[in-house]
Write a structure and sequence with these properties.
Radius of gyration of chain A: 18 Å
CATH superfamily of chain B: MetI-like
Helix content of chain B: over 70%
Strand order of the largest sheet of chain B: 1-2
CATH topology of chain B: MetI-like fold
Largest sheet of chain A: 6 strands, mixed
CATH class of chain B: Mainly Alpha
Order of helices and strands of chain A: EEEHEEHEHHHEHEHEEHH
Shape of chain B: flat
Distance between the termini of chain A: 24 Å
Distance between the termini of chain B: 57 Å
Structural class of chain B: mainly alpha
Number of strands of chain A: 10
CATH architecture of chain B: Orthogonal Bundle
Shape of chain A: globular
Largest sheet of chain B: 2 strands, antiparallel
Radius of gyration of chain B: 22 Å
Largest interface: A-B, 28 and 18 residues
Number of helices of chain B: 8
Strand content of chain A: 25-35%
Oligomer: heterodimer
Structural class of chain A: alpha/beta
Strand content of chain B: under 5%
Helix content of chain A: 25-40%
Number of helices of chain A: 9
C-alpha cells in the first residue's frame, strides 16, 4: 500500500446527460474520492452505472455539471485553467484503442511529445524505441497501425500515453473490445506498468485482474460509489447487497 | 435526312465554336469548384466552430447557425434561380463592381458550389471516428492541433473523391449558364441550332462532349480513390 500525497481529489461530482435535447439522465450523483500517488484503483460495477463517465470526468472529457476535481492541487474544473496542460500529465487508454490511423506506429508515439515541445525529435525517437521494445512492437515501428492486431493496438495505445510521461494513467475498459486470446498480453503490460509505481485508475470487467493488481476497489452503481475497500474486502466480504448481487452474477 | 453528314458538316463549319464552348464550360466548372472549395472551407469551419454565446442559459453558436442556414437555402433553391439572381440582381445592386457576364455567372456558380462543398467537408470530418479526436485531446493537444494533425488528414480521404464528383456535377450544371448565352458548350448548341436549323445533330455532338468530359473525369476519380485506399 502507498501513503503518498493526494494526486486527484474529487468533490461532489455530478454529471447529467441530455438525450434528444430535453430528457435528462443523471449519471453521476455525487462522487467524492481521493486518489493518492502510486495507488492502483480499479473501478467495477454494472454497465450504465457511471464507471466510465467518472473516469472521463477526471480529465474533463466529460464536463461535470457540479463538483470539483483537483489534480495535483489545481482545480481543473475552473474555467480559467488550461486543461490541455493538465491532460499532458494524465494518460488515457480507451476501450477502442483510438490509435491514430493516419500515423505510423512510431509517429503515434512521438507526435504529441514533439508537437507539444515536451521533447526534441531525437529524445522522442529514443523514448519511442524504448517503449516499443518494452511492449514488443519495435519491429512494427514503421508500419501503419491498420496492420496491427487488437492486442498490439492496445499495447501501442498504452505506450503512446506513456510517452508523455504522465503522472497518472486512466484505463477505460482496456480489454473489453479484445478477442479473448489477446486479453492476457494487454493485462501483462498493465501489470508491468503497475510494478513501476505508476498511479493507475482502471475501469474493468476483469475481476481476477482487479483482485490481483489493485490496492483499492471502487464499486460504482447507479451514479454513486456504493462500496469501496481493499480487494479482499470487496471480493471476499462485500457488505453492500448490490455489490454482493453484482459479484454473484460475474464469472471470474 | 442524313444524320452522319449533317454532324460532319456542323463540326466542319462550327468546330471552333464547339471547342471554345468546351473550354468555357471547363473554365466555369474549374472557377466554381476552386472558389467553392475556398468559400466552402470557410463555411465548414464556421459550422464546426465552438464559438458560442449564452442567451437565457442556452448555448447558441451564431457562426454555425449562419453556415447551416446558408447551406440549407442554397441547397433548397434551384441553381437556375440563383443564376438569375446573380445575373440580374447583383450587377444592378452592386453596379460599382462592373461585373462582367462571366464574372456574375461564375459568382453564382461559386456560391452554389460552396454550399455543396461545405457539406462535403463537414460530412468528411464527421465520418472520422470521434475517438481519434478524444485520444488526441487526452494527450494534451488543443482542439485545433487535433484537427490539423489527426482529424483533417483522415478526413481528406473522404473529402477528395467527393470533391471530384462535385466537379463532375458542376460541368453538367454549367449548361444552365447558356440561359444567358454565356459562351459555354450549351450556348454553342443554341448558336449552331440557330445557324443551321438543325436540332438533333448538334445536340448529339454536345452530348458526346459532355459525356466524354464527365466520364473521363469520373474514371480518373475512381483510379484516384483506389490509390488512396491502398495507402491505408
Amino acid at each position: 500500500m502507498t501513503n503518498g500525497d493526494i494526486l486527484i481529489k474529487v468533490e461532489g461530482l455530478h454529471k447529467k446527460f441530455t438525450i434528444n435535447g430535453h430528457e435528462e439522465l443523471h449519471v453521476l450523483k455525487g462522487i467524492d474520492q481521493e486518489i493518492r500517488k502510486g495507488e492502483v484503483v480499479t473501478i467495477i460495477g454494472p454497465s450504465g452505472g457511471g464507471k466510465s463517465t467518472f473516469l472521463r470526468c477526471l480529465n474533463l472529457l466529460e464536463e461535470p455539471d457540479e463538483g470539483k476535481i483537483f489534480f495535483e492541487g489545481v482545480d481543473i474544473t475552473d474555467k480559467k485553467v488550461n486543461i490541455n496542460e493538465h491532460r499532458q500529465k494524465m494518460g488515457m487508454v480507451f476501450q477502442h484503442f483510438n490509435i491514430f490511423s493516419n500515423l505510423k506506429v512510431g509517429e503515434n508515439i512521438t507526435m504529441a511529445p514533439v508537437l507539444l515541445k515536451k521533447k526534441t525529435k531525437e529524445e522522442a525517437e529514443k523514448l519511442c524505441d524504448e517503449l516499443l521494445e518494452r511492449v514488443g512492437l519495435l519491429d512494427k515501428k514503421n508500419e501503419y497501425p491498420s496492420r496491427l492486431s487488437g492486442g498490439q493496438r492496445q499495447r501501442l495505445a498504452i505506450v503512446r500515453a506513456l510517452a508523455m510521461e504522465p503522472d497518472v494513467m486512466l484505463f477505460d475498459e482496456p480489454t473489453s473490445a479484445l478477442d479473448p486470446e489477446m486479453v492476457g498480453e494487454v493485462l501483462q503490460v498493465i501489470k508491468d506498468l503497475v510494478n513501476t509505481g505508476m498511479t493507475c485508475l482502471i475501469v474493468t470487467h476483469e475481476m481476477g485482474f482487479a483482485k490481483e493488481v489493485s490496492h483499492r476497489v471502487l464499486f460504482i452503481d447507479d451514479g454513486i460509489i456504493a462500496e469501496e475497500g481493499t480487494p479482499q474486502q470487496i471480493f471476499n466480504d462485500p457488505k453492500n447487497p448490490r455489490t454482493k448481487e453484482f459479484l454473484s452474477k460475474v464469472l471470474y | 435526312m442524313n444524320f452522319g453528314s449533317n454532324i460532319i458538316m456542323a463540326l466542319q463549319r462550327y468546330g471552333h465554336l464547339f471547342l471554345k464552348g468546351t473550354l468555357i464550360t471547363l473554365a466555369f466548372s474549374a472557377v466554381a469548384v476552386t472558389g467553392g472549395v475556398i468559400f466552402g472551407g470557410i463555411l465548414a469551419l464556421m459550422r464546426l466552430s465552438e464559438f458560442h454565446i449564452t442567451i437565457k442559459g442556452k448555448k447558441i453558436k451564431p457562426l454555425s447557425i449562419i453556415s447551416t442556414a446558408y447551406v440549407e437555402v442554397i441547397r433548397g433553391t434551384p441553381i437556375l434561380l440563383q443564376l438569375y439572381v446573380f445575373y440580374f440582381f447583383i450587377p444592378s445592386a452592386l453596379s460599382f463592381l462592373n461585373l462582367s457576364k462571366f464574372a456574375s455567372i461564375s459568382l453564382a456558380l461559386i456560391f452554389n458550389s460552396a454550399a455543396y462543398v461545405a457539406e462535403i467537408f463537414r460530412s468528411g470530418i464527421d465520418a472520422v471516428d470521434h475517438g481519434q479526436m478524444e485520444a488526441a485531446r487526452c494527450l494534451g493537444l488543443s482542439r485545433n492541433q487535433a484537427l490539423m494533425k489527426i482529424v483533417l488528414p483522415q478526413a481528406i480521404k473522404n473529402i477528395l473523391p467527393a470533391l471530384c464528383n462535385e466537379f463532375v456535377a458542376m460541368i453538367k450544371e454549367t449548361s444552365l449558364a447558356s440561359t444567358f448565352f454565356a459562351g459555354d458548350i450549351m450556348t454553342t448548341y443554341k448558336t449552331v441550332n440557330g445557324a443551321l436549323f438543325l436540332v438533333i445533330e448538334p445536340l448529339i455532338i454536345i452530348a458526346v462532349i459532355y459525356f466524354a468530359l464527365t466520364f473521363t473525369l469520373s474514371k480518373v476519380v475512381a483510379v484516384f480513390e483506389r490509390r488512396m485506399k491502398t495507402s491505408d
